[in-house]
Design brief:
Helices cover about 80% and strands about 0% of the residues. It is mainly alpha-helical and about 80 residues long. Helix 1 packs antiparallel against helix 2. It is rod-shaped, with a radius of gyration of 19 Å.
């Protein structure tokens, strides 16, 4: 049985996952720095932390789907190899 996989799409999503993960960490680090600047910037700090949480979770989710080995499509391909 033949399994068709869009490798270019998978590679693009893996790169996007890495970008989102590091962007999320950057936002969280920025929120930490802003929180130490002064109490008048606490809204910016919370906003940055929430954005960082969103980006980091999106990157981690896509990283589990597209960047780890073996992916689901690779498992299916090995299982169907004998058919």
């Amino acid at each position: 049985m033949q399994v068709v996989v869009n490798e270019q799409h998978i590679a693009q999503r893996a790169r996007s996952a890495r970008f989102h993960t590091f962007a999320g960490l950057g936002f969280m680090l920025g929120g930490l720095v802003v929180s130490f600047v002064g109490i008048e910037y606490i809204g910016w700090a919370y906003g940055s932390l929430l954005a960082g949480l969103f980006f980091f979770n999106a990157g981690a989710r896509d990283r589990l789907r597209f960047a780890r080995r073996p992916r689901e499509d690779e498992l299916v391909a090995t299982a169907l190899r004998g058919l």
